[in-house]
Amino acid sequence: MGNGSEAQKETYVRDGKRFVARTRELMLLKQWFEHAEAPMTIFLVTGMGGIGKSSLLSEMLSVSRDRGATAIWMDGRSCGTTPSVFMDYFLSTLGLELELLGREAAHPLSLLKETSKKRRLVIAVDNYEELALLESWFMEVFIGKLHLSGVLIILASRPELAATWRTHPRLYQRLVHMPLQHFTADEITEYIAIAGRLKPNVAGTITRMTDGHPLGLALAVEAADRGRNLPYAEWAELSHMISARLLLELTIPRLHPMVEVLTLLESANQELLSAVLDMDVQQEEYHMLRRMSFIRSAPDGLALHDMARVHLMRDFRQREPHRMQAMRIRIAELLKPLHEQAGPHERRQIARKMLMLCQESMLQFRKYADVSNDSLFSPLEPMDRADLPSLHKLMEQWSEYSVEPWQAVNYGPFLDELAQRYPDGIVLKRDKRGEVIAMFITVLVHRETSELLLTYFPNEMNECFDPEELGQDPDESDTHFAVLAAARNDVPGYTREELVGYMILDRLSLLGDGARAILVATNPHLKLFLRSIGFQMRETTTRACDHYENRADVLELDLRSGQFGAWVMSLLHPGLPVNPSQAGKQASGHHMNIWTEQEVRKMLGQLHSPGELQKYADKLAGVKGGIQVQLYVLDLLEGRIHGVAPQDQKLLHAAYWTHAGNPTAAAQACSMSRATFYRHLGKALSRLARIL
After folding, report:
1. CA distance 383 to 436
2. Whose CA is closest to 199, among 221, 232, 175, 173?
3. What pTM was estimated for this model as a whole?
4. Which domain of life is it from (predicted)?
5. How many degrees, rounded to 5, is the angle at CA 368 between CA 363 and CA 371?
6. Using one digit for the tens of pLDDT, what is the confidence trace for 449-481?
7. Are 304 and 271 in contact (CB under 8 A)?
8. Strands 295-298 and 301-304, bridge-based pairing
């Protein structure tokens, strides 16, 4: 179909982007607008990363506005995890749209009351899978309050919607499923034809090799537009993996620093790009960025396509880890005062940006959670009732190594009742065949859910909460109680620790809105990991929650009182206090994180003797004992903890581990003369000192 209407052609000219295909989807939108009664309808757009979900939403919103409807775009990643946060975001987005349209309203909610077949409202939610914890409320309360005519809801999600949508007595008849596929050969030809200037042989190559993957096709055509002479192998990979090298080649050199900022930030506007780079980003440059096929417009600026961002991040980390970390810190320092001064909605947006900066800094201890694997993980999905047998099997395996037999009997019935009453609390990860391989259970604590939790876990609840907290109103709840993280240990290509690590990484993003996480833990490695990222630990008052010889403790991270920025900076700068009250204690021990090149050289010289490394433990945050020092340093030198450049890893590992005491062999292993080896080794030691 392409730009079949005049409105769509105008959109193409205005945005400078090609839009083709998706004939069925746009026809269904047209039919809804032509329907005299305009019944409430829910479009569900699904498909893999890069398939064009966000582009279709953008096109549908443009068409809707051309039809005279009020149309708003929301990002599920910014919608929060509580109803009050979602409503703040929704109302602020709606209010902004009304202002742009020049329509005055005493309150945006008044528009909802006026919605009808003549005054239509289109609500698009991108990345809807991020609303897993709010799904029941979204279905029953939010949609339930909307008019039954004049409202169109468009949800874009990578995974399919939960089965509860298809079986819902009121909503299933209003659901229109739109699974997006790769472009057909005709659609590829149409897309290429719009470019207009491609040679027939190049167009043929693109048609054959991109397999119709929309993002790969966009990048291939853009490369051809610029006259790039790409190797045949590069074209062959475009339909499966976004090459960081190709993305950088497609970008005009002076735009490289701006792309690097977008790699580290979820989104950025012209002002923020200028502040981070300490230079004026011109309107022309910003416009050029916006037209790149791997960059999309977001409500608060520009953003990289998710798949492109993953590959660029990996490329940046391998090339210049030190500059990457320095840029992270600079961005966080710029965002921290903005976060503290912003209003509620904007503060949540900034908080997410800050959280994204420090995710890699969070997970250093690999015995419980490991995120060293660079695979592209899909977001966690809400559970489906059909998943319960798999979830029970997973829970049984978890119970064998996590709780005592008398404690384990409660978990099965709890899972059944939670799945029935509050399924939003259960999220899971699947493999490529759709089988459940991991799950994470958190419960938003309020007077309704606390009744359930007290029934099955009275000891844990009494250790974590007082009666007033358990009786809190659902709309005011801001505390997540973490029940468990369970994963299989037989998944090809991934360890259990890697699966758990990525689930924790995903769930920590819930705290970006200013919330609290609390749990009872017995696993010593879990305690070490949580304390290393700022969780406070206190002893339980009884021994009822212990696991055999492992003592139970309560761990809590409370970011409700304006300490989010300090927490982020403490992750980027290990050793910085999260609470201002800790500053005095830190000042008296300020020397603990200062390393000289001579100290690093001496410490590495004793790397084979853990007993000699004991004296360095106090200088490394979260590390205790000589063996942990040895393991931590080896993780750095062998790349399991990011930060040391690959060449420095090879030099230091050869000099102080594989060929310790034999500089000639170490130099040969690095293919260098001894003089060159010593020169580079000195620089590597200096850089490692700065990292430590």
Report:
1. 9
2. 221
3. 0.57
4. Bacteria
5. 40
6. 999 999 999 999 999 999 989 998 888 888 999
7. no
8. antiparallel
